[in-house]
From TrEMBL:
Protein source organism: Hoyosella subflava (strain DSM 45089 / JCM 17490 / NBRC 109087 / DQS3-9A1)
Entry keyword set: Membrane, Transmembrane, Transmembrane helix
Any one GO MF annotation of this record: ferric iron binding
Residue span of region Disordered: 50-74
Membrane spanning residue stretches: 28-48
Signal peptide: none
UniProt xrefs under PANTHER family: INTRADIOL RING-CLEAVAGE DIOXYGENASES DOMAIN-CONTAINING PROTEIN-RELATED, PTHR34315
Superkingdom of this protein's organism: Bacteria
Protein name listed in UniProt: Intradiol ring-cleavage dioxygenases domain-containing protein
Protein's UniProt keywords contain Hydrolase: no
Residue intervals of the Intradiol ring-cleavage dioxygenases domain: 134-191
UniProt-listed InterPro entries: Intradiol_dOase_C, Intradiol_dOase_core, TAT_signal
């Protein structure tokens, strides 16, 4: 797509902004010796996904006793929030605004009612407590945000700076589940299709600038992404996507097994994405 110059500048700044944070986090964890696949496997008693592999390491659904499967419990890695978080760490803070706690994030709230158009996407997430063998993590808050079909982020990008669509907060139920109604995100230059999220211990923590338990990103499957961008109105996304790979993405290139959503449905009828998110509490 033909991205406005100042938006492209933001993306360039974002890479410079993101990489030191990403590297510093992982360097620190590497020093502590807790990021290797072997360390995860030893801690969880299971097999961690291979770095750079598309093989997913799935957690089992919660059992009747409320516990997950400790042998396949692998925590989702920490990732950069990027330059457009909208959480007060880099400019605007949507988390303190009335209306941000919602299920349908396609529409802006407050002073605008603009709707982000695109292929409907139901985002079904299950938060799990990694420290308790992937038992359901109830009462936690998750903030999700993503770009629109043009690759623009509300609150930041030219043409979307006065909007706050495609941002919202949900609170997990007793089974750890949270559901959002959104759209399939566009693909802008340099990044694999993804959705950002932050997990907080509670809604109060999210709305009071508390420290997230986890900041990470959800990857979307290659076949579904290609299908959406070829069949629907996503300006420039098919061309941008053709130039990308998971192994070359700045976030997912070191492994995406625990971050790859499972998708079902079709572009013309709507899609459903599912992902279990084990969190170190």
């Amino acid at each position: 797509m033909n991205m406005p110059d100042n938006h492209a500048d933001d993306l360039d700044r974002g890479l410079a902004y993101d990489m030191p944070r990403l590297l510093s986090r992982r360097s620190l964890l590497a020093i502590l010796g807790i990021t290797s696949a072997g360390a995860f496997a030893a801690a969880c008693g299971g097999t961690a996904p291979r770095a750079g592999s598309g093989e997913a390491s799935r957690t089992s659904p919660a059992s009747e006793a409320g516990l997950g499967d400790p042998e396949s419990c692998v925590a989702v890695p920490e990732e950069t929030a990027g330059p457009f978080p909208g959480d007060g760490s880099n400019g605007p803070n949507v988390l303190v605004r009335d209306g941000v706690v919602r299920t349908d994030i396609r529409r802006s709230f407050g002073d605008s009612s603009a709707v982000a158009d695109g292929v409907d996407l139901s985002l079904n997430l299950t938060l799990q407590d990694w420290t308790a063998g992937c038992a359901p993590l109830a009462g936690a808050a998750i903030y999700v945000w993503q770009c629109d079909r043009n690759g623009d982020y509300s609150l930041y990008s030219p043409g979307a700076a006065t909007e706050n669509y495609l941002r919202g907060v949900g609170v997990s139920d007793s089974s750890g589940r949270v559901t959002f109604t959104s759209i399939f995100p566009g693909c802008y230059p340099g990044r694999w299709p993804h959705i950002h999220f932050e997990v907080f211990s509670s809604l109060d923590s999210a709305s009071s600038a508390g420290t997230p338990l986890l900041t990470s990103q959800i990857a979307l499957p290659e076949d579904v992404s290609a299908s959406v961008y070829s069949a629907a109105d996503y300006p420039g996304s098919d061309r941008n996507f053709a130039q990308l790979s998971l192994s070359g993405d700045m976030v997912f290139r070191d492994g995406w097994g625990t971050q790859m959503a499972e998708l079902s449905g079709a572009a013309d009828t709507g899609l459903t994405a599912r992902l279990a998110i084990p969190v170190r509490t």
